Amino acid sequence: MASGKVAVIRARPWAAACFLLPALLLLGALVVYPIGYSIWRSLYDASGDSFVGLDNFQELFTNDAIRTALRNNLIWIVVAPTVATALGLVFAVLTERIRWATAFKLIVFMPMAISMLAAGIIFRLVYEQNPDRGLANAVMTTVHDTFAESSSWPDAQPRPGGSVEVQEDGSYVLLPPADANAPALLPLVAVPQPELADAEPAAVPESGNGEISGAVWMDFTRGGGGTPGAVDPEEKALAGITVEAVVDGEVIAEAETAEDGTFTLPAEADGAQLRLPSDNFTAPYNGAEWLGPNLITPAIIGSWVWMWAGFAMVLIAAGLASVPRETLEAARVDGANEWQVFRRITVPLLAPVLAVVMVTLMINVLKIFDLVYVIAPTSVQDEANVLALQLYLTSFGTDTHQGVGSAIAVFLLLLVVPVMIINVRRLRRENQR
Questions:
Q1: SUPFAM superfamilies given for it (predicted)?
Q2: In 129-186, which ranges are continuous DSSP H helix?
Q3: Looking at 126-130, 410-414, 429-433, which range is the least confident one?
């Protein structure tokens, strides 16, 4: 019956042509014509009237923005598919050893159901600088603060024109030397009132017993009034501030302010210079600047890997299911440990599948646009630029030049074609086996 149908088709080629014609027309309208028009348009200037030859292609390698996009695309091609494939391989191998493998695969694959636009919006929030809103920095600050203490009063500053002076290293120094017969007063300002909500009223230190006593407080009275440099009744104490006594650059004694802002140093601190170390006033750790110029490309690559690692895992898991278990067990019986089995047997047997995943992800990466456009703020978009985004900005942005935009499109096509040819040849070799 099948041979009869083939004979009919061969006898009537017009019948096959009728079935293929709609697909060919669609292919020509949506693929062939746009490619041909882009090649033609890339040879003309911005207006499309003057023939410029290969000048637009020369612009690809002389324009700074396009060169940045080329560099970033190279980073994407090398890093993103490699990381996603490696994670997919690890997930596929490890999920074979857990009971809840199906649930794990579902969770890892779930981001594939989200559009690039939605993923970009999600990670724009994840990478927020403020730890109260950004998940990434919230985790980083939590871990950091677990092992490192934060500064006591990061906003506190000396009163302008007062007796406390800021040093180059960020510390604050009381200009008059310590005197056992007079209290050492270190007034500070600029602390926000909400931070003082639980602070106790500042106390006036006592002196004259041979020790150095003093106070550190917020020298500001709400509603006005008060005497600058003196402890007034309504002013708040700054507790937990380290005070050092320094002689010839060496710390000879130190103390910490109590809840009422007072501190006491031993008698040997008499005549020393009192210093508030910069550690008391350093800004709190707020995590990494994910959306800054230095980390924006790795951050976007991380969001892309979050989406596509599940895709790699599913394909590799399908290939792993066809690996002969007898071969793996034989290797274990011969004394190979799990790492040796993985490196010398599992990975070589999965090489064809890994190649398919890598090639597919590389083609996808060359077309990356949505994530970069959504995640990268306008201020750092130039640093995160890629060819597909540059194509859009050049062709439809404020300073349009569709000749250069078409040249970028042709260049992207030339980058994709070799990868596709390699993939097609590999598939043909697989079918001939």
A1: MalF N-terminal region-like, MetI-like
A2: 135-147
A3: 429-433
